[in-house]
Design brief:
This protein is mainly α. The chain has a single domain, classed as TorD-like (Orthogonal Bundle). 73% of the residues lie in helices and 0% in strands. The protein is built from 11 helices and no strands.
Length: 236
């Protein structure tokens, strides 16, 4: 698996948890025999202390709820998600995960417009049917997934220049957007979550974004010194 593929797999997993509403299929997938193995496998190339702590909390949630009725597990996940992501009140949960909310203390601010322009520059715009604004956490993470997928395709098509352009864009987006506000949201998510699934997801998210920024920065530095290489031999 190339670096772009591994990164895409993690962003794909995270975007699903932040964008999709909890349902029976989600609960069933969490308790499927292979889920914990797949989660550990996806994250194994990126493990840091915070990522390991996130995995430990998610595994703990799965162990604690394994014998609970499916309906009760779904209810607990759905209730916690609503409290954490919808900003119902300051007493029950954190402000909702929009970049403009955390950087400007309001929704639909300049940050949202900046994010949208960044998407347009890379030729990626949310579909007209999208229900969330461009600076919603799940949308921003899904944008990183799309960049990784396009980078994979560029390496496969023998276009290292385009692949490195996309890698650089991802690093810029991480540093200028995601890392400017997501760690703050994740800390509040850990403090306010009632179940370990969302505490673990917060730790995993924060840890992975920080690690990915360092990893991509090192990769680009290496390229500047040694030049681009075939991803089959050097994990593009």
């Amino acid at each position: 698996m190339t670096l772009a593929q591994a990164r895409r797999s993690v962003y794909e997993l995270l975007s699903a948890f932040y964008l999709d509403l909890p349902d029976r299929a989600m609960v069933q997938s969490l308790f499927a025999p292979d889920f914990e193995k797949e989660l550990s496998s996806v994250a194994s190339a990126f493990e840091t202390g915070e990522i390991r702590e996130g995995l430990r909390l998610i595994h703990g949630f799965i162990s604690s709820f394994r014998n609970e009725p499916e309906e009760e597990t779904l209810r607990r996940i759905a209730v916690d998600r609503t409290r954490l992501f919808r900003g119902i009140s300051e007493e029950t949960g954190p402000p909702p995960p929009y970049e403009s909310m955390y950087r400007e203390q309001r929704t639909g601010g300049a940050s949202s417009a900046e994010v949208f322009r960044f998407y347009e520059k890379l030729g990626v715009t949310p579909p007209e049917t999208a229900t969330e604004s461009p600076d919603y956490l799940g949308v921003e993470i899904d944008f990183m997934r799309l960049l990784c997928r396009q980078e994979e395709e560029a390496w496969t098509n023998g276009n290292p220049g385009r692949a490195l352009e996309l890698l650089g864009a991802g690093l810029e987006f991480l540093r200028e957007h995601l890392l400017k506000w997501v760690p703050s949201f994740c800390e509040r998510m850990v403090e306010r979550a009632e179940i370990d699934f969302y505490r673990g997801l917060a730790r995993f998210t924060s840890g992975f974004l920080a690690y990915d920024s360092r990893l991509v920065g090192e990769r680009l530095k290496e390229v500047r010194i040694h030049g681009a290489s075939d991803p089959r031999s050097r994990q593009g």
